[in-house]
C-alpha cells in the first residue's frame, strides 16, 4: 500500500513460488525406485519430469516467465562427486524446449544460484586461497597444496590427498562456511563412520565442471545471476564472456555492501561479510539494497521472497 495515498497499487514484479524438495527422499519427496538415488543426472531428470507434469496440471501458468533458484550443493572432496542441480535442470529444460511442442514448452528465462559450485578446479583453488588469505592455514601447508595438487583432474595423487586432509581438519575447529558464526557441533550420522563411504559408492553420475553447461544456456539466451561471498566466482575467468559492466561496488546504507560485475548473459554480485549461505547470513535490508540492474527485476524479487522465507 502506498504510504501517502490510501490505495492499493499493483506490484508488477510479483512472482508465484514453487518449492521443490529435491532429490528424491529429501523433505517431503519420496520414491520407490532405487535409480532415483544414483546421482545428479537422475535428479535433474526427476525435477524436469515433475515440472512437466506440474504445468500440465496448472496450464494457466505456462505462459509465465519461469526462473529457477538454488544454492551451492557439494559433497566431500574425496568422494569425487559434485552436485549441480540448478544448471543441469536448466540445461535439460533448455535442450528439451528446442524440440518441444507448444504444449510442453517451459518458458525458462533464467536462473539464480548462491555461492555456486560450478567448476572443481577453480573452486578448489579458490577454497585454498581463501583459507590462506584468512590466516586459517599455514604458509607451509598452502605451498604444499600448490606444489602437490593438480585440481584440473578428479584423480588426485596420494600426496595431494594427504595435504588436503590437513586442510579439512579445519572443518572440525571452525565453521568454514561462515567464519563469523559459532561452530555447530554434531555427532557423525548414526555414529557409524562407514556411512559416508556407503553413500559415495552408491552415487553414480556427476560432472567435474559445469562450465560447458553454463556456456550452452547463456549462448541460448538464458540469463544467469550468481551471488556469493566472493569465494566461488573465479570460474568466470574460464568462461570467456564479454564484460558489459566492470567490477563496481554497491552500497548498503552508505557502506560498501559488495561488488558486482556484469557479463553478457551472466551477472555476479558479492556480499560483504556473508558466509557460504549468504541469503541466511545477512538481514533482508542488505539484500534490499542490492543493485537490480544486473538481473531481471522479477528474478531479483524472487531472491528477496526466498530470503524472507528463510
UniProtKB/TrEMBL annotation:
<protein>
    <submittedName>
        <fullName>Serine carboxypeptidase-like 34, putative</fullName>
    </submittedName>
</protein>
<keyword id="KW-0378">Hydrolase</keyword>
<dbReference type="InterPro" id="IPR001563">
    <property type="entry name" value="Peptidase_S10"/>
</dbReference>
<dbReference type="Pfam" id="PF00450">
    <property type="entry name" value="Peptidase_S10"/>
</dbReference>
<comment type="similarity">
    <text>Belongs to the peptidase S10 family.</text>
</comment>
<dbReference type="GO" id="GO:0006508">
    <property type="term" value="P:proteolysis"/>
</dbReference>
<keyword id="KW-0121">Carboxypeptidase</keyword>
<dbReference type="InterPro" id="IPR029058">
    <property type="entry name" value="AB_hydrolase_fold"/>
</dbReference>
<keyword id="KW-0645">Protease</keyword>
<dbReference type="GO" id="GO:0004185">
    <property type="term" value="F:serine-type carboxypeptidase activity"/>
</dbReference>
